[in-house]
Amino acid sequence: METSFYKMHGLGNDFVVMDERRGRLDLTPARIAALSDRFRGIGCDQFVLLRPACREGADVFVRFFNADGSESGACGNASRCVASLIGREAGITAPVLQTRAGLLGTEIGDDGMITVDMGPPALGWRDIPLSHEVDTLRLPLWGEPAAASMGNPHATVFLSPDDMTDPRQRGPLLEHDPLFPERANIGFAQVRSAREMRLRVWERGAGLTLACGSGACAAVVNGVRRGLLDRTCRVEMDGGALSVTWRETDGHVLMSGPAVLSFTGLVALDTYPR
Ligand SMILES: N[C@H](CCC[C@H](N)C(=O)O)C(=O)O
To answer: 246: Cβ–Cβ under 8 A, 6 or more apart, which residues?
Structure first.
């Protein structure tokens, strides 16, 4: 028996989306990792599951899994993709996503750009989380990153404009540092001006991706905290740019960008290891 899936991306950060709203699928972390494999499976950075919403006001419950099968509380680019799917399916322009990080309001613009309210960042060491109390604005690690959670742990290293650090070298070492009991996504940021930043993210459980929405949000929050950025910033990544605002009135972080449905397909789930 074959099961349908959507293949989507946000600035090249790509996803396989499967729907459990009409019944559970036989999925395990190992099978999710196998489906995410770019050679033996469909291939994606993150695997996204849709389930019936169980909170008032939400249109869908969304869970995010990395290519290694680990679960993440947030995924900004995938949130835009799901908002686009639900918006088209239900004929609405402001779907509400229930996630492990809370309810996310979204808005689908006439221009196809999608804005997600990612909620407020968490900046306390226990919320990131870190293994013990340190200054989350300047961690005692290589590159002295600043840490913030957008529902998932992020550490942002601010590099000089001409720095050639390769995220594939430094990223894994920082991702697995014992200071991060749940590992962390590592952003490598180069500030161009108060409203423009270049960012590459070594993602927990997925590696170097073309774009990272929650990583862009965390990098803007950390840049503002460091006095390097205005509250609205254009974040340019390898796959393209997002607009991020850390709103002063309520502390929420708004992220705007595209979402693309690449194709739909069918997969024989039971041929994948459990
Ligand atoms: N690509 C995602 C980030 C996934 C985060 C995941 N790697 C984690 O374990 O937190 C985004 O657009 O926000």
So the answer is: 121, 217, 220, 221, 224, 231, 252, 253
